Amino acid sequence: MPQNIVLIGMMGCGKTTVGTLLARRFNRPLADTDTLIEQRQGCAVRDIFQNCGEAHFRSLELELCRELSGQRGLIVACGGGLPLRDEAIAPLKESGPVFWLDRDPGETYDSLDVSGRPLAQSGRDDFLRRYQNRVPLYRRWADYIIPCGGGPQAASDLISTIYSEVFQP
Predict the structure, then answer these.
(1) What domains, with CATH codes, occur in the chain?
(2) Could you give the count of Cα atoms lying within 13 Å of 72 in the half-sphere of its Cβ?
(3) What is the pTM of this model?
(4) How far is CA 104 from each of CA 21, 141, 150, 151, rounded to the nearest angstrom?
(5) Which helix (H) or strand (E) is 76 found in, with range?
């Protein structure tokens, strides 16, 4: 069974969009961690944050990561904060290569609908600081850094090329 392809990066950088393109290209299921949590909980991530707190959301995320890391052949689009917890990202990294979708944070924020994003409510400057704080962690966990200035299709093409050349016989 083929390895998973794991996508990390800031909220709004294109993980779900790129993941959808990769899922189509490789004919694999997309496992978007935020979407799966919403489906299982029956409510939006913002509602989980608001009603139960970030710690509860992170515990749901951790449980899901452990489950997904035991499967193969997935395209896994991780929530932006998932790599902040070693115990969440480490099992996913063991299941397949990790690709960091690195998009300019100012451009990301400016194009982002922040209404459904609890950790983007404090404004642009806070978002940019959050990005800078996460860069070392994204770098630590990434096997490959994918610049996203060319859009989702270009990022998907690059990941597909790398994965096909390095990980498929």
Answers:
(1) 5-166 (3.40.50.300)
(2) 4
(3) 0.92
(4) 21, 19, 11, 11
(5) strand 75-77
